[in-house]
Specification:
The complex is a heterodimer. Chain A is mainly alpha-helical. Chain A has 20 helices and 2 strands. Chain A is 75% helix and 3% strand. In chain A, strand 1 and strand 2 form a beta hairpin. In chain A, helix 10 runs parallel beside helix 13. Chain A is globular. In chain B, strands 1-2 form a two-stranded antiparallel sheet. In chain B, a hairpin with a 2-residue loop joins strand 1 and strand 2. Chain B starts with a helix and ends with a helix. Classes of the chains: A mainly alpha, B mainly alpha.
């Protein structure tokens, strides 16, 4: 069942290749049907998941490359399952969002579905070589999505994206190889590595192995000095690309940190956790400050992503530092929850910005004002999402953030103070944005506007409703996460 | 058959919530839209009364709720709790909200934003009642944030140029305090292992290892409470928030939301009791804030801003009573202040409606034409001025007695405060309603509507009778100890201060009008830099954002440096790629030369092979070229070719490895 979920998008993608390009409707329909079937399959996985059992479920393991002792090994636990469902959901919604476009439909649907298989595979793979393969399969379509459908400076952005992710993948691969070679007999199997703990003793290379992983996943997450590709990639990517990039692709980094780094190198992470904690805290405040300086709405949202994902780094580091098992779970649950929540809220935020841009032809904040009067639906939804993003209780952002914050408070008051300041800046940022573009008067240069299409607003509303549901009843998610967290 | 108490308790916050949803759903029904909040809050009042009449209030002890979710060993709970204290305050909140909503129905009749406004008022009532009834720190915090969001919305909805900025300022400033509160309650909950109020309050009895950790979270929570209650130095948002409509000022920014700070400290008082240093800090902030804000109120030129500073001052007194470790006085003053201050704000709203302004120098002589309104304002003002036997007199006495009992050295400041308070409120009344030199009166007056006057009348009557009644009944109900009553000498002193304040204000305004006295201001400035305080607070409120903007600009420098580094890398990478390309071409040429030589050497072999192998290769080559052209048509540069090549290489490598593995097996 799990393999079916993973490869359904790929199978659909191959099917789409066969359909003649002229049948746009058929191509779009097949793409949406494939994605929806994937979503249904992932929900079946969810319903069949036993959250009381911390072991990997839906496990499937067959020999893949015998000479390397590499296996096709997939399985899910509470950490990966929510991300799998999130991926399938966002894939479906994104394909619905682009359904009206006629040009280059075949290639677009193909690339998105291919990316879907890569992402689902990353969240399910239990073998590092397989993980790496899926990681690349998820990334490559993104270069093309940015490069082909992007905005004016797409080549620059795609090049930057290419360089950063390439170097990161290299660092990650080297660390994977180091883990592989340290195992006796050599093995890529993550559960085996987690059991054997090849770097448990303070070996000299251990720090470097962790560094490779932190660079590899930190670029994707992003962790703050490694984030510079993200604003450009987001701004130049088409809306549908931004949604997938923010909502799901960044989670590969966070998931990798929790799954690979924390499982394979817990002692090493613990040794360097204080530095990582501060990196996370700096990320929270840095992303918020950088967002505040932006004039481009999309770039602003991109930087808030940096800030929000800082909580994942924080949770990761706080979990390693935590003095008690209870605190550790608190941190990990928070980080996992934050990933899902960010996927919903920021995915919706990018969609909203895309809808506005499609109507207005500009993203410049200064050219908007008083949208409440012109676009009441868009404005109301945008305000709800903004309050959700700044962590208003009752929406999902709060649940993840307060848990990570609690764990940080218990480990380092200084880092927690930084995070609190970052949150205050984030509040100011969104409120400033709301009073600027939703309220207030319209500037003379504001383009004529009409309410965005219902489909787009509907998709954003679905995401907002999910964020509210998770905010009011976090147990929907925490119950599942708890099983996975206790396994790490 | 009476409904089950649990359902009644749930109905208290849910009725206004339902009213909000109904208001949103029926936003086009213009006639109905204003009555939803009235119905919602009326139901809340009814449910609370029913609960209070079904059994003695003092014996109330209703809990409902349970686990929300577990995170590690921390149990997050949601729940409501009805005891004598929360019943009293919830009833106060619901009743004031009811009065204000009735007022708003008439007051907002012509406003275009009224559908959203009334829905937000319902939402606020629901959140505020949840805040008061919450039995869990996390629910209390959630409600705390919701009332902040409602406040933002209600200020922002006003169609005034200054409204968006004021709304943002209010939310951001209070949110900074909220974050301190968040850190504080998280620490408390982690110590207690649960967010349930009982578990948290149980920390007080846990002894040595926990005690050492308690001051920090309690201090953080106190900071949150002081911000919400607009105490110094976090008060700058409240006067700006006066840009909102009068009902908002009456309900949120005087009676309920800003009182949430005091409420939170009251709820956690068993923990604070054991922290004399934190209590002393709260007392110091409260009392000094009360004095300074009262002085600032004396020089305001705007009726609503006088009342705003007065609110800060009175909340300061409430907190001072708490800081003096007499929670009874705090609850008492909280209740009476909510009543007379909301009456004053609503009356000020009516004045604004009738005369078209709330600037003191544009008002005057309104008593002749609005006698009832003038009377109601006067009664409420006298209640505020602690004139016996009105409400403020009793609660003010209680606050004074509390200070006298536990912070005796500061007691003489309170008659001074009474003088100043009386001065500013008498000045406000006289400048608005009486004749003074230069008073323009209002050229055209719109008579206030009955719908506006009725709730003000109700609140004013409450301001008359509530003090004596509560002084009589509240101690028994709450089971809190009253402070020792002060002796006759002090009472006479305080009464004298009040009379002096009234006289001073009347003489002053009669002689020169409401303009702040130059001599008086100079004298005041010598003692306390009143204007300076106001300006300094504003500077804090604008300076912090400025600092943040500096930080934001600094990040742009870093971003630019990172951009440069990336493009440098990109250039080198491209150069490297060009080098690789050149190398590739060189190898290619070499290969071609070799092929040519080979071809010359083996013409016959070549001739044979050409028909078979080369034809296939040709086909492959043309296919490749076609693909390459297609890729180029898709506007891809060499970069994408590299990417694709890399990708294919990777997949090919994996397949190859697999084949090797399979072969080896």
């Amino acid at each position: 069942m799990l393999s079916v979920t993973i490869f359904l998008p790929l199978a659909t993608a191959l099917l789409v290749l066969v359909i003649p390009a002229a049948h746009t409707g058929l191509i779009r329909g097949a793409g949406i049907a494939g994605a929806a079937a994937t979503l249904a399959a992932s929900l079946l996985l969810w319903s069949g998941y036993d959250s009381a059992d911390p072991a990997l479920q839906w496990r499937q393991r067959v020999v893949w490359v015998d000479a390397l002792n590499a296996h096709y090994d997939v399985g899910v636990d509470g950490l990966s399952l929510p991300l799998i469902v999130l991926t399938a959901l966002l894939l479906t919604l994104t394909l619905i969002y682009v359904a009206g476009r006629r040009e280059r439909a075949k290639m677009q649907v193909f690339l998105f579905l291919l990316m879907g298989t890569g992402l689902l595979g990353v969240f399910a793979a239990q073998d590092l070589l397989l993980f790496y393969l899926f990681f690349e399969v998820a990334l490559v379509p993104m270069y093309f999505i940015i490069g082909i459908w992007g905005h004016e400076r797409r080549r620059y952005a795609a090049l930057k994206f290419f360089l950063y992710t390439r170097l990161a993948s290299l660092a990650m691969l080297l660390s994977f190889l180091a883990l592989y070679l340290a195992m006796e007999p050599h093995s890529f199997s993550l559960p085996e590595i987690a059991r054997a703990q090849p770097y448990a003793a303070a070996t000299p290379g251990a720090g470097l192995v962790l560094l490779g992983l932190v660079i590899g996943f930190g670029v994707k997450l992003p962790i703050v000095p490694l984030h510079n590709w993200l604003p450009d990639a987001h701004v130049e990517a088409p809306t549908e690309g931004s949604i997938m990039l923010a909502a799901v692709q960044l989670k590969m980094g966070g998931y990798g940190l929790l799954r690979v780094a924390l499982e394979a190198l817990p002692e090493v992470v613990q040794r360097h956790a204080v530095a990582l904690l501060w990196l996370g805290a700096v990320g929270v405040i840095y992303g918020a400050l950088a967002a505040l300086a932006q004039r481009d709405l999309k770039r602003l949202i991109a930087y808030t992503s940096v800030s929000h994902m800082g909580f994942v780094t924080l949770g990761f580091a706080a979990a390693a530092l935590a003095g008690s098992e209870s605190l550790r779970r608190f941190a990990l649950t928070g980080a996992s929850f934050q990933m899902v929540s960010h996927g919903l809220l920021t995915g919706a935020m990018f969609l909203m910005v895309g809808l506005l841009e499609a109507r207005a032809g500009t993203r410049e904040i200064a050219r908007f004002g008083g949208l409440l009067g012109r676009l009441p639906r868009w404005s109301a939804l945008f305000a709800v999402l903004a309050f959700g993003s700044l962590g208003l209780p009752g929406m999902s952002g709060f649940v993840g953030e307060f848990q990570v914050l609690g764990a940080t408070l218990a480990t380092s008051l200084g880092a927690a103070l930084l995070v609190l300041i970052g949150l205050a800046v984030t509040t100011g940022l969104y409120l400033h944005l709301l009073s600027r573009i939703v309220l207030g008067g319209a500037p003379a240069s504001m383009p004529a506007l009409a309410e965005p299409p219902r489909v787009g607003l509907g998709i954003a509303a679905v995401l907002a409703v999910l964020a509210i549901a998770l905010g009011l009843v976090p147990a929907l998610l925490t119950g599942v996460i708890a099983g996975g967290v206790s396994g790490i | 058959m009476s409904p089950p108490p649990d359902a009644l308790l749930l109905a208290v916050p849910l009725a206004p919530l339902t009213a909000m949803l109904a208001g949103i759903a029926g936003r086009r029904r213009a006639r109905l839209v204003a009555w939803w909040p009235v119905a919602g809050t009326a139901l809340s009042v009814a449910a609370l009364l029913w609960l209070g009449l079904a059994q003695p209030v003092a014996a109330l002890g209703l809990r409902l709720g349970g686990a929300w979710f577990d995170a590690g060993a921390l149990r997050l709970t949601l729940g409501l709790r009805l005891d004598a204290l929360s019943w009293t305050v919830a009833l106060l909140v619901a009743a004031v909200a009811l009065a204000v909503n009735v007022f708003a129905a008439a007051f907002m009749r012509e406003q275009s934003e009224r559908a959203g406004f009334h829905a937000a008022m319902s939402g606020f009532a629901a959140a505020m009642l949840t805040l008061v009834l919450a039995d869990s720190l996390v629910l209390l915090f959630a409600a705390w944030e919701w009332v902040g969001a409602a406040s933002w919305l209600l200020i922002a909805l006003r169609r005034e140029p200054a409204a968006p900025a004021a709304a943002a300022k209010a939310f951001v400033m209070t949110r900074c305090g909220d974050l301190a509160l968040l850190a504080g309650w998280l620490l408390l909950a982690l110590l207690a292992g649960s967010t349930a109020l009982d578990a948290v309050l149980g920390l007080a009895a846990r002894g040595a290892p926990v005690d050492r950790w308690l001051p920090l979270p309690l201090l953080l929570i106190a900071v949150g409470a002081l911000t919400k209650s607009a105490q110094l130095p976090f008060s700058a948002w409240l006067p700006d928030a006066m840009v909102a409509q009068a009902p908002v000022s009456a309900l949120l920014h005087s009676a309920t939301m800003v009182a949430a700070g005091a409420w939170l400290l009251l709820r956690l008082f068993p923990l604070y009791e054991a922290q004399p240093l934190v209590l002393a800090l709260i007392f110091a902030v409260g009392l000094s804030g009360a004095l300074l804000a009262a002085l600032v109120a004396c020089v305001q030129r705007d009726l609503k801003r006088v009342l705003a500073w007065s609110t800060i001052s009175h909340l300061g007194q409430t907190l001072a009573a708490l800081g003096a470790a007499v929670p009874f006085a705090a609850v008492f003053h909280l209740c009476t202040h909510a009543v007379f201050k909301s009456a004053l704000f609503l009356a000020a709203g009516s004045v604004e409606h009738a005369a078209g302004s709330h600037r003191l120098d544009r008002l005057g002589e309104l008593r002749r034409r609005l006698p009832l309104l003038a009377g109601l304002f006067a009664v409420s003002a006298l209640a505020l001025a602690e004139v016996p036997p009105l409400a403020g007199f009793y609660s003010g006495e209680s606050v004074f007695a509390a200070v006298l009992q536990n912070r005796t050295a500061f007691a003489p400041l309170l008659p001074v405060l009474a003088f100043v308070s009386t001065f500013y409120i008498a000045r406000a009344y006289y400048a608005t309603f009486e004749r003074w030199p230069g008073a323009r009166g209002a050229s055209s007056l719109e008579p206030p509507r009955a719908g506006e006057l009725l709730p003000v009348l109700g609140l004013a009557v409450a301001a008359i009778v509530l003090g004596a009644w509560l002084a009589h009944s509240l101690p028994a109900v709450l089971g809190l100890s009253e402070p020792e009553p002060s002796d006759l000498g002090w009472r006479i002193t305080r009464l004298a201060a009040v009379v002096a304040g009234i006289c001073a204000a009347v003489f002053r305004v009669r002689a020169v009008g409401p303009a702040p006295a130059r001599i008086g201001a100079a004298a005041a400035a010598a003692v306390v830099p009143v204007r300076g305080v106001e300006r300094a607070l504003d500077r804090v409120a604008t300076g912090v954002p400025a600092l943040v903007h500096h930080g934001a600009r600094a990040t742009q420098t870093i971003e630019a440096a990172l951009d440069r580094a990336a493009s440098l890398l990109a250039r080198h990478a491209l150069r490297l790629a060009a080098l690789a390309h050149a190398l590739d071409q060189g190898l290619d040429r070499l290969g071609r030369a070799a092929t040519a030589r080979g071809a010359r050497a083996g013409v016959r072999v070549d001739a044979i092979e050409r028909r078979g192998f080369a034809a296939g290769a040709d086909r492959l080559a043309t296919a490749t070229a076609r693909w390459a052209r297609r890729a180029q048509r898709a506007q891809t540069g060499p970069l994408y070719a590299y990417t694709a090549a890399l990708f294919v290489w990777l997949l090919g490598g994996v397949v190859l490895l697999w084949l090797i593995g399979a072969a080896a097996a």
